[in-house]
Amino acid sequence: MALPRPRSVFQRIPAYRAGKPAHSDAYKLSSNENPFPPLPSVLERASDELARMNRYPDAGMTALYRSLSERLDVDEDQLAGGTGSVGVLFTLLAAFCEAGDEVVYPWRSFEAYPIAVDLAGATGVPVPLRDDATHDLDAMADAITEATRVVLVCTPNNPTGPVVTRDELAAFLTRVPSDVLVVVDEAYVEFVRRPDAARGLDVLPGRNNVVVLRTFSKAYGLAGLRIGYLVGPPAIATVVRTATPPFAVTDIAIAAAVASLNAVDELEQRVEAVVSERESMVDALRSGGWDVPDTQTNFVWLPLGSDALDFAAQCAPVSVRAFDGDGVRVTVGEPAINAEFLDAAARWRAAR
């Protein structure tokens, strides 16, 4: 008996792999989560919304757009929300790409990029990173053809950590045709401390082909509520809003996001604690002989190549994220758990 067949893309598309579970959340350094629990004010506001779970969410995301507009100094019609920045990306590519179109992106970078591109019916054009784990923007510009519809720039880059600099992005944008959409993915922007790092919002004025993606999952600690957003030209934001499924983002998530924006001073203290711990981990690893690229995120990258899977196994009970053949990404967790990871890394290296 014949069965319904999905599109042929599902014969080759990989499933997204979540971070490997651990015996407790504290030991799970395989997903880029915030190690701190929700702020009491945010938890209280989200809990209040539970009493209204019998009602549909605000499809217009009014409170979210108002708060972001004030916080970022952008117009509300420049915003489009979704289920995390990755949800917005999937919607964006589905809205702007079709069969025969190409999407240029760095590789290795965010694991969901090739999945989102394939599902949109487009063809991915991955461009290898440079030896220092940074974007090769010259090569990415060279890869643009008449078929290119979108270019993805991940800064800081996941899973390797480095940023694209302000000058690099400015030079790159001069080479991108005006009808090619440039997506600046800034999921980790709050952790950036390099003064010369590019900021997507700074390049938006005067450009009609650039959008910025951001999320509440990382620095704001709302990964479980799935909420992120796009900032860009009103014409593009309007298309993404139209293409987003109705009621995709819950009022609980919106309430928590707005409360987080109102508690930004408290959250910045937590971000500073993560950044400080990140620097300590990088210093310890480099002192131990490890090759660690610059990281402006809440994780560190070890370019272990073919040793990635073996190293990850030796880190147990700490769970880290291995990318077979490339390296291992380790999220900054609680100091005691980070110390256990560093001990495991030292033992593995000493045994080589």
Explain how this protein is built.
Belongs to the class-II pyridoxal-phosphate-dependent aminotransferase family. The chain is an alpha/beta fold. It folds into 2 domains: 8-37 and 265-350, Alpha-Beta Complex (Aspartate Aminotransferase, domain 1); 40-262, Type I PLP-dependent aspartate aminotransferase-like (Major domain) (Aspartate Aminotransferase, domain 2), CATH 3.40.640.10. It is built from 12 helices and 10 strands. Strand 5 (181-185), helix 7 and strand 6 form a beta-alpha-beta unit. Helix 1 runs antiparallel to helix 9 (251-262) and helix 3 runs parallel beside helix 4. It is globular.
Layout of SSEs?
Layout: H1 40-50, H2 62-72, E1 79-82, H3 84-96, E2 102-107, H4 112-119, E3 123-128, H5 137-142, E4 148-154, H6 166-175, E5 181-185, H7 200-203, E6 210-215, E7 228-231, H8 234-243, H9 251-262, H10 264-287, E8 299-302, H11 308-314, E9 321-323, E10 327-331, H12 335-350
Parallel strand pairs: 2-3, 2-4, 4-5, 5-6
Antiparallel strand pairs: 1-7, 6-7, 8-10, 9-10
Helix pairs in contact: 1-9, 2-9, 3-4, 10-12
Summarize the structure.
The protein has 352 residues and is α/β, with parallel strands linked by helices.
Descriptors:
single chain, 352 residues, alpha/beta, Aspartate Aminotransferase, domain 1, Aspartate Aminotransferase, domain 2, 2 domains, 7-stranded mixed sheet, 12 helices, 38% helix
